[in-house]
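REQUEST FORM: STRUCTURE PREDICTION
Request ID: SP-0412
Submitted by: Lab K.M.
Chain count: 1
Length (residues): 559
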Amino acid sequence: MNKVLAAAISAVVCAGIAPAQSQNSGCDGPVKAKTSRSGPCSELARKISEVLADPAVARAHWGIKVTAMDGAPIYSLNDGQLFQPASNTKMFTTATALALLGANTTFTTKVISRGTFSAPGKLTGDVVLVGAGDANLSGRVIPYVPPSMRPKVAPGQQPPPAPPALRYLKDMADQVAKTGLKVINGDIVGDDTLYPWEPYPSDWSIDDAVWGYGAPVSALVINDNQLQLTVAPGDAPGKPTNITIDPIAPYYTVDATALVTGPHGSGSHVQIERAMGSKVLRIYGSIAVDARPDEEEIAIHDPAEYAAAALKSMLEVRGILVTGVARAKHRISTDARGFFRASHEPILAMDWSKTYAPPQTSIACVSNCSSTAPAETVLAQHISPPLIEDMVVTNKVSQNLHAEMFLHNLGAAVLGDGSTVGGARVIRAFLTTRAGLDPDDFIFFDGSGLSGHDLVTPRATARLLQYAATQPWFADWKRTLPIGGEDGSLVERFGKAPLKDHVFAKTGTLSEARALSGYLDCASGKAVIFSVMVSAHSPATAADRIAMDKIVGLIAAAN
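STATUS: Completed
RESULT:
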């Protein structure tokens, strides 16, 4: 499509006649045919048409919705059609979580004894680490600090080390040791039964399960359920490489028999595989002797089991004898309903104006306790940062696992069911009942957008953004969004005036789908809402992202 044809299409669209290949597109609102060719709206439509006529992006499917802050329509293109939202899904999840759980709610992880003390310091029974949905048992610095505000590192100097990844687990081990406990005639158990054991939502790619961004979902999270694996070259070609895993804990076995140090200038060609259910990491390929170390984030296969193993080691280091093993305690789902139907079930007699406190104890114990159950004593605990601070991290850096935990925590708090479908049901009910979204305009199978089954329309996304802007929690929620040229996933986009610091939006990228939606400060000084989505774009290219950013610039200039 050339520029002449693009201009002709935009003129027809603004006159109110949509061409067959661009249905439901053009200027919204009362634009008259006799003035449409010269008005600001028709000019915006013409310029957007020119951007999308570029052969590099013309074969992709595009959807756009732009409105005023009060929802008054400005421009649309395929805004009622469904797109893969990718990480735009996190906006729907976090808005619901902020509204229903509250900005200041916290989650308390506990270490408890289940058994009897036959003598001072001697337990007959298990020590259990009970997960409560805290996403930040890690070395992450909270609150989130934008890059521009982080300490500057002088040339040639190393940045200060990050806090230890297992610092809070170590703190709880210290608390246990201070109780005087010396012998545990039982196991160390990682209990994540607050959620059913559903580590991977529907349609998560099997390829993602190896990597940190696809870490399994659990109510007991340690270091984002991931380890940092570093492969450094040996001191000469053909020599073995140097492999380190941080944090160090007895869990994975590494098979690097097919990994070698390559010759100078040969680059890094390191591959990592792990069979489903296996705890063997197979690392193969080569890394040049002069290459920088290859650093990868590797998902932990069973986070509750890993947490138990790490805690057992820490207790033993502190002089506590453990006669049993480290093991996980999961709750296996017995819900045989289909996800689609179950997630669409209405929630009756719901008070959407109140906030809900998340359960602070194991659901398995609540449902299965009896008069003969072992006595429980709290030995240690850790209280999470406020929910809003984790939400900032989640949206700024697009943290998939944390978004999934928001979904599960919603199900646990509102329905007493921390399942994937329970959380999805709460989100759907909130969005349709409270936020006013058309129920046919979206379907979410997870909380992060990593599922390829997730679908949403640009107009539903714009409606969510408009609804949020009217809520008392809006200021808190808006500050979780990445800022153009400043932080999060937009730190390297919109880095120059007039858009720098004036785009507040959530990114989304999944295979050949991309999205960007949020708020935009425009040339007039007014703010608008926008959602730009693209699917089926050409792989291995950034042309669609470049076009998307151009469109945002055009919207800002025209309003």
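NOTES: The mean pLDDT is 91.
Reviewed by: T.R.
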